[in-house]
């Protein structure tokens, strides 16, 4: 496939219950928009039938890659390594944001990339999530600002798209392999001097998430390591 406009990476960990409906939704949107695209389902440490379900989809635009290592970051970076689109991005497997709106944003984009934000211009109590998750999210965001100088309202929303030259320019060796991956990615892009636009968007209503509160301690440890590396240079 040549002259692709967009490479959409879906990092997936044991998503057999919803991966098919998610891919069908993405295909429907991209076909309707007459986009030249590829969808890369990047399975990271899956122990279920996610990969086989994707392989059974009869569509030449769909690719599946597998890694025995787990972690969202592992899945996204493996996708980066083979993506060929003008824009390269990732969306979570739970179909969190409206892809049609994202494609319209890319069509009119004047920056080096866009990140979708559920927090931009929103108050704490307007976000429909459990209190503890929101509290931890805001603490994470504050530390990302203080330690890494990231000024985004939302580093963690699972929808980010960048021009291919942005992805090609960054080192693909990441300390962060899990949900904390996004901050290291944005930090690497920031160091290169690229301009990324943050765009507010409401979440689709979906059931279930692979994120667990127990991941928080590991995420903060990785953030501290990034801060140490920053100050050694």
Structure in words:
The chain is α/β, with parallel strands linked by helices and 233 residues long. It has one domain (6-232): Spore Coat Polysaccharide Biosynthesis Protein SpsA, Chain A (Alpha-Beta Complex), CATH 3.90.550.10. Helix content is 39%, strand content 18%. It has 8 helices and 7 strands, in the order βαβαβαβαβαβααβα. It has a 7-stranded mixed beta sheet, with helices on both faces. Helix 1 (19-32) links the parallel strand 1 (6-12) and strand 2. The longest helix has 18 residues, at 131-148.
Brief summary of the model shown:
The chain has 233 residues and is of the alpha/beta class. Helix content is 39%, strand content 18%.
Low-confidence stretches: none
Q: How far is the N terminus from the C terminus?
A: 41 Å
Arithmetic mean of pLDDT: 90
Second CATH tier, the architecture: Alpha-Beta Complex
Biggest sheet, in brief?
A: 7 strands, mixed
Overall structural class, as computed from helix and strand content, comes to alpha/beta
Helix content: 25-40%
CATH superfamily: Spore Coat Polysaccharide Biosynthesis Protein SpsA, Chain A
Strand ordering within the main sheet:
3-2-1-4-6-5-7
Number of domains: 1
Output the CATH class name.
Alpha Beta
CATH topology: Spore Coat Polysaccharide Biosynthesis Protein SpsA, Chain A
Number of helices: 8
Beta-strand percent range: 15-25%
Looking at the structure, what is the overall shape?
globular
Order of helices and strands: EHEHEHEHEHEHHEH
Tally the beta strands. 7
Measured on Cα atoms, how large is the radius of gyration?
17 Å
